[in-house]
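Anyone opening a protein record will find just a pair of labelled lines. The record below illustrates this layout.
***
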Amino acid sequence: MASEWSKVRIEDIAEKIAMGPFGSNIKVETFVDDGIPVISGAHLHGARVEDGNFNFITEDHAERLKNSNVFRGDIIFTHAGNIGQVAYIPHNSQYERYVISQRQFYLRCKTDIADPAFITYFFHSDEGQHKLLANASQTGVPSIARPSSYLKTIELLLPPLTEQRAIAHILGTLDDKIELNRKQNETLEAMARALFKAWFVDFEPVRAKMEGRWQRGQSLLPGLPAHLYDLFPDRLVESELGEIPEGWEVKSFADTVEIIGGGTPKTSVAEYWGGDIPWFSVVDAPPAPDVWVLDTEKKITHAGVENSSTRILPAGTAIISARGTVGRLALVGVPMAMNQSCYGLRGKLGHRGFFNYFTTRQLVSTLQHRTHGSVFDTITRDTLAGVQVVAPPLAVVETFERLVAPALDRIREALFESRSLATKRNTLLHKLISGDVRVGAIHRNYLEG
């Protein structure tokens, strides 16, 4: 450990520590369309507060909650529910001022001695998480007892301010690369989804031909090369689902897929668990823009597969959660198994599974409304059979999959890259925050390696 690092308590570096408002002070009926954004746990997934979809309260309301107002540089903690969440508001945040929710509290650092980003990364380390949660109760709703007063007592080793900033910069650079991948994935997925909607929901190419907006040899429609003109008819005809392109069919969704069930190896048999086969459950479902699932929380062995009803699903299989939290969706990116609360759906149209994935995604809301069950909402095989979909000709499906393949393949590559970056960041986090390795050595051996 470098001799110039000093042991401090959080209260030594704190300008202010304060709690969020009482729950009765922020209610649904107090939200407005624009104003001061309210930070919730949904905005604290990484080291930085994530701007996105906010609820807002009026400026007058925020003034009445002045002690719970936070600004750039403030560090936000969750003290009830998803405890362990810690994120700071970066200098380039979308808003200058926010209000925290009733399950949060915050630390405002003395920035002449403590860098907010460094302190945040300390609380993301194993040591920081252990200290933060040492005063937590897991009974009922997980919570940290006396959060603000307890936070003041936590000790850490603090390097000089310049080194704090250098450490935070290195870790932040890796987080920036991960965030760039995330934003790229959002854009690519939205493009693929928009093309699916244009072709298979709105039937835009057919309507363009009907209305004379698309002539042979013209690339009038985004993502639609001119040579694809002949793929689409120039008429819509009536069907059970309303107007559809002439020559296309209406089928039961169950007739367009192979439905695959899952299973759980006996948990009492150790030899079935801890292997190298990912085993999917609803907690492993990715955010919608990520599309692919590449890894899972639990893994099983080949013996676990052989001695249970689960099966290995090939890449390109869609998985949908069918019991409890229904409708969570993923596209299998590496061969994996799944539990019995899910269905694997192998599309009979197309080879990559992309058309089937987006078709299933389009149906999620309908399937959720058709669930049943006395204890848990459940999607059954009958549910899948009772939903109708439009089935285009194979040539149209294969063309769609060929056009969206570069985007979806790049999303998959970015997820692998981000996973590698996160592993590197976590390794560096431990080494840098503990002082085991100095900033210069980390830069040479890791960031340039």
Summary: The radius of gyration is 26 Å. The longest strand covers residues 273-280.
